[in-house]
Amino acid sequence: MAATQFVVNGLLVGALFAGVAVGFALIWGVVDIINLAHGEMVMLGGYTSYWMLTLVTGNAEGSPLLFLATIPVAIAVLFGIGYALQRTLVSRVIGTDIFLTLLVTFGASIAIQQLAIQAWSANPRSIQVSFADPSVNLAGIVVPKMKLVAFAGALVLTALMYVFLQKTRTGRAIRAVSQNPEAAALVGIDVEHTRAVTFGVSSAIAGGIGAFIAVILNIQPQMGLIYTLKSFIIVVFGGVGSIPGALIGGLLLGSVEELVAGFISSQWTLAVSFSLLIVLLILKPRGLFGQGAEQ
Amino acid sequence: MSTTDEDSSGVLRSILPPEQVDRFLGTCDDYGWALLGLGTLIAASFPVLGLEGGYFMTVLSEMFLFAILALSWDIVGGQTGYPSFGNMAFFGIGAYATAILTKDFAVAFPVAFLLAGLLAVTFAAIIGIVVLRLRGHYFAIATLGVLLVAQQVSRILDITGGASGKILLETPSAETFYYLFLGVLVVEMALVYYLSGTRFGFVLNAIRDDEEKATAMGFNTTYYKTAAWMLAGLFTGFAGAAYSLFNTFIDPQTAYNGAWNVELIAMALLGGSGTVAGPVIGAFGLHTIIELVETYAVGWQLVLLGGAVIVTVIGFPKGVVGTLSEYASQMDYYKHGGMAATDTDDQEVNADE
């Protein structure tokens, strides 16, 4: 029985991991960059939502609808930050040694993290959302309502991004750039702009998920690296550039972590999931579902 | 970081690339050894000349420490082309090993120091077998993960003192550490400098330039990679082993400092990776700046570090030494008369062969 509860918890949190990882996979697939500042986008999204709510209510508490209203703001702000990050920094190192691109995004990650500490202190914060009846009980399994909302929110954001990539003109341009930047440029696509939009979209979804993380877990300036690493694990697991792969990878990682936390100790979650990654990298370096950067 | 051309005559050059060899502070010759010896003498005489006033001594010791770390990173990151984001894992292991051995088991410091180095090498060998099979993005993130896991484990275990760490009060004098850090740095510089003129050093560079060609030439690249990785582990472990007592305090945050890991990469790049002098110059330079920021703008040093990394990577990817040596080889080319000023290296190299 306990195991079922852990798995349910894991799936609920795993959808959030998956949402973050989808953005990470998008940049990796399209721009061929590992964005080590991706976790910071999650953090900034959480803080955007937190401060919006504080601005309206005076403290970071509010009704579910009021909280949901802050999500578009977080998405918009993070889109701008992501777009600017690509245009000002990342575009300058594209095509050089991949190690340099890693270092630039790592540098950005440290700078953002430390600026956040300077601005908001290192204390963890969270958003409180009021529900008359906080949990629902389904056949003996307790599910907090807010986790359900966050789970649904993460799935909706991921689905929206999938639709955006498949159906819109910009989405098609992004896929074209991911397949062949030179050919895309030849048919009149502004490759630099498209890459920046990709970065913006990736950061926006991370920011939106960050807001949900602020509700069900908590946020603090140094949280980013863990989310970046988890995204990496998920993307390697699911295959670079595969959105369904990232979704399944996220749900699996969430379940594994909750099971480890439940049966061993929450302190061991990182070590276990990371060891799994190493084993996977050696056995199946291309991931379980992907063959490189195709989408 | 640079690659040679792809034609078949380039195979020999990818094993023996004169352009890269030249970057070791102008090939492995007597001038380099004399310079190293002179620098050592000057540095060693500072305490004798009465400059042992606490602050100055501490700052210099820290500079030597960072130079050791940056140069160790460069053996694998710059010379072999496997950019590690997890070198601080060896540092943490060395640091905890001496802390635990001296405090809990009353082992004498010199013995603990050597044992810590041995432990770091063993750890490097085990980890290396696994992570050195990966390349590029995967290697970088895997090493970062090793660092984070090591940090997490040190937070959980009892023997490491958990999250609150260990306080070490019975430590040798500041002068001891000054000479210890200086000694390790000089031995490491001499070793890397010597190796740069041997087959071992050339194969490392060949792996960086084109690992498949190096394998095709019949070199067991796994052996060379792992040996380089263990060498880096040894010196990083020694640095950590001395640091915990030097600092009189150790906890998971300081032992496995992820920001330091970026700092030492920035140092190697800033000075010029793939060279002997580069990482050391970079360590001295960047540490001076960081020390100034720490004094005059407390709390902003990591923001500065992030900025410094970005500026270095975008502005001077070849670093101080790389840029200088490029300039020098261009001057040399003009002097010995040639055709157009482009592709200097290739023309020169063919003439030499």
From TrEMBL, chain A:
Cellular component GO terms held in the UniProt record: plasma membrane
CDD domains recorded: TM_PBP1_LivH_like
Membrane topology: Multi-pass membrane protein
Main location: membrane
A Pfam family that the UniProt record links to this protein: BPD_transp_2
InterPro entries hit by this protein: ABC_transp_permease, BCAA_transport_permease
Record localization: Cell membrane
Membrane-spanning residues: 7-27, 65-86, 98-117, 148-165, 196-219, 231-253, 259-283
Family stated for the protein in its record: Belongs to the binding-protein-dependent transport system permease family. LivHM subfamily.
Protein name according to UniProt: Branched-chain amino acid ABC transporter permease
Organism of derivation: Haloarcula hispanica
Automatic annotation (TrEMBL), chain B:
Pfam families the UniProt entry points to: BPD_transp_2 (PF02653)
Xref: InterPro entries: ABC_transp_permease, LivM-like
TM spans (from-to): 31-49, 107-131, 138-157, 177-195, 227-246, 266-286, 298-316
Single GO molecular function: branched-chain amino acid transmembrane transporter activity
Cellular component aspect of the GO annotation: plasma membrane
Compartment annotation: Cell membrane
Broad class of the protein's primary localization: membrane
UniProtKB keywords: Cell membrane, Membrane, Transmembrane, Transmembrane helix
Topology with respect to the bilayer: Multi-pass membrane protein
Name by which UniProt lists this protein: Branched-chain amino acid ABC transporter permease
